[in-house]
C-alpha cells in the first residue's frame, strides 16, 4: 500500500506533471469534496512562472468540468426534491435560483456555497450549457484575479523575471 501511495504521489508531483496535477486537483475541488485548488495553482506558477496562463486555463477547465459533474449530480437528485420541497430554506433558494437562472452559476467560484449551487442548478433543471458557460466565466475570473493579485502583491515570492504575457 505504501509503495502504491508513493507512486501516486510521484505521478501527481508538481514539477514533472504540473498541469495535469492542477487539472485533477481543480476538478476534484469543484465537486462537493472539501478541497481547494489554489495552493496547487500558486505552487506550479511559483515553480514555473512561464506557465501562468496555461495554469489559469487548465485550472479553469478542471474546475468547470467539476462544476458540470455537480450539475449532473443535482439533476440526478431531482427526485429527492419532493422530500424537502416544503422547507423554508429550500423554497427561498429555489425561487432565487429560478429567478436568476443560469446567471446564478457565475457564483460557482464562491467557497462553501459555489459547488452546491451547481448541484442545485442541475436539481432545478436549469439549462446545462448556459450554466456551464457561466460557471466557466466565474471560475476563470476567480483564478485570474486570485493568482494575478497574489503575483502582484508578493512579486518577490515568485521567480525573478516573471511575466504574465
UniProtKB/TrEMBL annotation:
Domain of life: Bacteria
Keywords: Membrane, Transmembrane, Transmembrane helix
The keyword Membrane is annotated on this UniProt entry: yes
Domain VTT: residue ranges: 52-144
Entry annotated with the keyword rRNA-binding: no
Membrane-spanning segments: 12-32, 52-73, 143-162
InterPro entries with a match to the protein in the record: DedA_domain, VTT_dom
Protein name (database record): Inner membrane protein YqaA
Organism: Polaromonas vacuolata
Organism placement in taxonomy: Bacteria, Pseudomonadati, Pseudomonadota, Betaproteobacteria, Burkholderiales
Gene: yqaA
Amino acid at each position: 500500500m505504501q509503495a502504491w501511495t508513493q507512486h501516486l504521489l510521484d505521478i501527481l508531483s508538481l514539477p514533472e506533471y504540473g498541469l495535469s496535477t492542477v487539472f485533477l486537483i481543480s476538478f476534484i475541488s469543484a465537486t462537493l469534496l472539501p478541497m481547494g485548488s489554489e495552493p496547487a495553482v500558486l505552487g506550479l506558477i511559483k515553480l514555473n512562472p512561464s506557465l501562468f496562463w496555461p495554469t489559469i486555463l487548465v485550472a479553469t477547465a478542471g474546475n468547470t468540468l467539476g462544476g458540470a459533474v455537480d450539475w449532473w449530480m443535482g439533476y440526478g437528485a431531482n427526485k429527492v426534491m419532493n422530500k424537502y420541497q416544503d422547507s423554508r430554506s429550500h423554497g427561498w433558494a429555489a425561487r432565487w435560483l429560478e429567478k436568476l437562472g443560469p446567471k446564478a452559476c457565475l457564483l460557482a467560484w464562491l467557497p462553501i456555497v459555489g459547488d452546491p449551487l451547481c448541484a442545485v442548478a442541475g436539481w432545478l433543471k436549469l439549462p446545462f450549457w448556459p450554466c456551464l458557460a457561466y460557471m466557466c466565466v466565474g471560475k476563470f475570473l476567480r483564478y485570474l484575479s486570485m493568482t494575478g493579485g497574489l503575483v502582484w502583491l508578493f512579486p518577490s515570492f515568485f521567480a525573478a523575471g516573471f511575466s504574465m504575457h
